[in-house]
Amino acid sequence: MLIYLHGFQSSPRSWKAVQLGQYLAGQARSDYRVPALPSRPMAAADALTQLIEAQQTPLCLIGSSLGGFYSLWLAERYGLPAILINPGIHAARDLGRFQGHNVNPYTGEHYTLNELDLAVWQAMEVPVTRPERYWLMTQEGDEVLNYREGVSKLAGARQTVEAGGDHSFVGFERFFPEILTFAEQYACLPRRG
Asked: Which candidate, 85, 109, 111, 180, has a CA 20 to 30 Å from the CA of 163?
């Protein structure tokens, strides 16, 4: 199973999630999930923990931006492989400017981020213990996050670092066959306890 985690202020309707889903459907794959992540981190952590712990089949995570941050946290917690696309590395720092009232442009949800939310994201930062289970996909032209932070954090992992591009990861669809191969090769059951 491949579980895609979307980014901040996004939804399961994000273009990358939809594109990948269409590709996998064309491969007659029905083991793809894109959960709608709560906007606030404590609720997102609870929902993701429940989702992963309920899985009975081998899985691989794929996350973009804040979804990459969550994927890294889950991968370290449960011993899972993960593909990280222009991932957030320091969510508390990078999202601090969103404290206060926000509206998700995909869902219309109104919510408020506060100091507690930033503290939760800070507590979710984890070291990489087994870089071989990760694939970092990043583009140097990312206008939202500093791609060097992902390259440094995931030293020793498989890395696709491209010149140019942007935060959306231009040309993402070029990698669909490799993503499927990686997921099939490394998918595993979540580690319990």
From this structure: 180
